[in-house]
Specification:
globular, 2 helices, 30% helix
Length: 66
C-alpha cells in the first residue's frame, strides 16, 4: 500500500497513479464540497473556463464555515 497522506492515497486510488503534494491530477470524484470562502471563487473559475452546467448537481455541497 502507498504510504502517502490520506489525501494522497484517496486521490491516487481515484486517478490510477501515485500522487504527491503539489501534483495536478484529473479524477472522478464522489462529492465536491465548497465553503463560503472557496465556493464563490470556484464558481467564477468554472464560468471563466466555459462551464455552463454541472454534470451532477446532487454531488455538490456547500457549507458555511465562517
Amino acid at each position: 500500500m502507498y504510504a502517502g497522506t490520506l489525501s494522497e492515497q484517496i486521490l491516487s486510488s481515484r486517478c490510477g497513479q501515485q500522487v504527491h503534494a503539489g501534483d495536478v491530477v484529473i479524477c472522478r470524484v464522489d462529492r465536491v464540497l465548497g465553503t463560503d470562502g472557496s465556493g464563490p471563487m470556484a464558481i467564477d473559475y468554472f464560468e471563466q473556463m466555459g462551464g455552463a452546467r454541472l454534470f451532477d448537481p446532487a454531488r455538490v455541497y456547500f457549507s458555511l464555515d465562517h
